[in-house]
């Protein structure tokens, strides 16, 4: 039997084993859970943060919070007790929270905008309407009345997720108080005579550096969402009809090279509750004109540079679609598939008139939700328009067109079954269909995530199958992962294996930089959950790996290292790591299949610090150094990020990064059937600045800019040719205008942004931005000279205005 078939069989064995065992296991931590009965009320309280409404006097109290940190399990202080009450009507659920504190009116406040949680006191309400231990919505209210909401998966928080809700706070000499209203239309829950949800409440007391939870949590076992308490007695409510419209208009002008270009756009996003559990999100004629800039750098490596997603439609409620890491949303609307080819094929008889740098997204929708049986379903679909390059013949003036990206359809289907013991099994399929002669792609994956009884161990695995359809035929690929981790106690350990054959490729809708690997990993760690001396917490880890190519089977490298992190009682954090790697066969730097360059053994390590983020001045800094043995190649990086809060409304943040690498043996060019390597020095500086003035929790103006500069220069007469055994032999390679591997890159961008959330899910945004960049082969260019040259180039200036207004169908119907 081939190695590939063995890998597939062993993965199916694990899937079969888990299917047999997963349903019968219930973690022992269920015995720690609390329970609270909600009260039905006839009229809603006024949401003003002042808890003197007569309705609240009749509601039973939830109390007796337990400490989560720093001392896990301690009772709350008598001087800082927390209490809450929960009620509901036919339309919404309400909570009143009482946070007693001797500081009273002196409790520190910090104004922030939506989904920015400050380093002050705040209260947290987590609601899991399916009580599955995995998927829940988090609501946060701060002492200044700031609001944040997030979709949670295990311990991960996605603050890009937004729902419609309301909150208000008040403060007196006994403490502070919060009042919350969450419409049922903002939650998904099954039809039932009685809803049985799980909830958790948490309180952060910044002045004491303490965190408390209502339902006790044992940090040494499992994950925090497993400890949610139960919310009962919500009876005879029907999931409301959920339909919301988000129409928008936007417009503005660009100014570039003495030319103004106006633009206008109008469109709509729609949210529709198909059933009580499933929601349709639809965007028609999307507008991403005010999306934040990417942090672009000079990419000299063999892999593409990837960026985080900043478009709201692709970040809200996408936790199902991100399973298995098969979905890189920046593929949608990215550069056309043959953008570079269109440039390269331009001949001397014509000029390139137009070559779009991005494909146009026509529309997109997603359907997602979870049934009462724990089955999650997600379906995503997006369509991008045809992109064409246009050429003009110098002599005849004739125009010709070339398709660089055809009409393309992207879709994803996800099925995710959750079990009561917090485990899950998932199936995912992604598909890319291109009209015409371009390639199509299909990827399927199966995943499992199992917690054993008592949450002592976690076993997780993946099997992925890729299939590319090209003009030359089908290309089938396979990859798998399996890990076993101890998830209980101070001492933990784990083993993992990762495999991919040489044809595995998910890059049409996902990202995988490498394939053809057969890697093994191990780790062990020790951590504390109770303060010891001056440390509130610390963790020390040891880990290692052995990496090989799958076919032909060959050694790549072996490495091991240690990592340490700690937090003092004064919230000063520090840590670092130290790694050692054996000789390394790099199969990617040569930019040629099955060719590698061999690097010597190396050490790499770093140290970092982070000061108390409750203070007005906060400093984060890191220093990293890498040294190759018996080699002149060295690299070090220094970053620092000071933040200063002038007042509760004004804060500034500066970030600086300096990086230098010396004498790196790296790819330079292909020349006369030789793979040319050179001795390269590189230096880079990055400066960025952000300032924000919060008029209130609903209005703010912010200023941000970023400048990144780098120069990469090859030493003259120090080029080599790569040999088949991975070593380098001297080669006489001449640098000229056509063959110049040196590079200088400098980029600047600035945003001045005013934002006003004038109603729920409705906002007015005004943006001014400018940007400029250069990329050339200039040698010996200092930072100051390069920046002076950059500012002599033509800037692109943009002014835009965007208005979004939320319309609730239920209110429109009543009108």
From TrEMBL:
**Stored SUPFAM superfamilies:** CBD9-like
Gene3D superfamilies in the record, alphabetically?
Answer: 2.60.40.1190
List, for all copies, the residue spans of the domain called DUF5916: 239-814
Q: Which residues form the Carbohydrate-binding domain?
A: 47-196
Domain of life, source organism: Bacteria
Q: Which CDD domains match?
A: CBM9_like_2
Q: Name one Pfam family in it.
A: CBM9_1
Q: Which residues cross the membrane?
A: none
Query: What is the name listed in the Swiss-Prot or TrEMBL entry for this protein?
Result: Carbohydrate binding family 9 domain-containing protein
